[in-house]
Design brief:
The protein is of the alpha/beta class. 34% of the residues lie in helices and 24% in strands. The chain has a single domain (3-303), classed as Ribokinase (UDP-N-acetylmuramoyl-L-alanine:D-glutamate ligase, 3-Layer(aba) Sandwich), CATH 3.40.1190.20. The protein has a nine-stranded mixed β-sheet with strand order 5-4-1-8-9-10-11-12-13, sandwiched between helices. A hairpin with a 4-residue loop joins strand 11 (215-219) and strand 12 (224-229). It is globular and about 50 Å long.
């Protein structure tokens, strides 16, 4: 295999509303649906749908959601032999999506919260066949750190999507991470100041690099993406699309980035791929269902003057 994902699997419970809620407010929604999600599973699907061999390591519960999550991953080409069925409920995410496509998410991580050394041992078994490891923070940070250390020690490239940002500092992870990929909110939480432009993203990336991060990619939504590597910095403008649902855009970005790197692309080309995958994910509802397949992705790149 080429990519392994160590992370979360959730069932998303999605409500569409005219706008995002204010504190203490009740709104009438226009739609409700359930759809497989979880940042780990989303990223695994994003990579697999782009034609890259992908495996996920994580946990689901014994409830019907767990069975559905596994069945959907298998149907989309993600290897699930490393997923443990735990004697608890599966993770869920309650998601509000506004008419603008903006979203708010509350996660109840269930079986994801039990990920530990046992799961890291399963990861060790597949790392010799892995070129790149994708990590997020919807499973315990202690397990994420162990996974990063093991992969780093074996020379596997490691990408961390630091979401959700925990209360504890994650800087101890940075020596084992090759690429850190926060969005603007997460970058601001990590550095302690507002990040809302390419200029402030550059400042945030500099701070994170001073703390030990190697390459930092800050996703700025509709503005684009700022990247700071040890030997270069650049900005990639966002692709122009009519967004209807941004729920999984960041996970699609991670998938596009990982797929490009596995195929030997330069960092700048990989960021462009990430931005393209993220843009395509915003024009469809849902999380895994919104991830573009390779023909759609290649056609989008060609239509925008980008070589696939």
């Amino acid at each position: 295999m080429s990519v392994t994902v160590f992370g979360s699997l959730n069932m998303d419970l999605v409500v569409r509303t005219p706008r995002l809620l204010q504190s203490g407010e009740t709104l009438i929604g226009s739609d409700f649906y359930t759809t497989p999600g979880g940042k780990g599973a989303n990223q695994a699907v994003a990579v697999a749908k782009l034609g890259i061999s992908t495996e996920i390591i994580g946990r689901v519960g014994t409830d019907p959601f767990g069975l559905e999550l596994l069945a959907e991953l298998k149907a989309l080409g993600v290897g699930t032999d490393g997923v443990l069925v735990d004697a608890t409920h599966s993770g869920v995410a309650v998601i509000t999506v506004a008419a603008t496509g903006e979203n708010q998410i509350i996660g109840v991580f269930g079986a994801n919260g039990n990920v530990d050394q046992i799961d890291v041992e399963r990861l060790k078994a597949v790392l010799p066949k892995t070129k790149l490891l994708l990590l997020q923070l919807e499973v315990p940070i202690a397990a994420v750190k162990q996974a990063a250390q093991v992969a780093h020690g074996l020379g596997v490239q490691v990408i961390l999507d630091p979401a959700p940002v925990p209360a504890e500092a994650i800087a101890p992870l940075y020596p084992f991470i090759d690429i850190l990929v926060p969005n603007e909110i997460e970058a601001g939480q990590l550095v302690g100041f507002l990040v809302n432009s390419p200029e402030t993203a550059a400042l945030a990336a500099r701070v994170l690099q001073q703390q030990g991060a190697k390459t930092v990619i800050v996703k700025l939504g509709a503005q684009g993406v700022f990247c700071a590597a040890p030997d270069e910095t650049f900005f990639v403008p966002a692709f122009n699309v009519e967004a209807i649902d941004t729920v999984a855009a960041g996970d699609a970005f991670a998938g596009g980035l990982a797929a490009a790197l596995v195929e030997g692309a330069s960092l700048q080309q990989a960021v462009i791929w990430g931005a393209a995958a993220g843009a395509l994910a915003t024009i469809k509802k849902g999380a895994q269902a919104a991830m573009p397949d390779r023909p759609t992705f290649n056609a989008f790149l060609a239509a925008n003057g980008v070589m696939s």
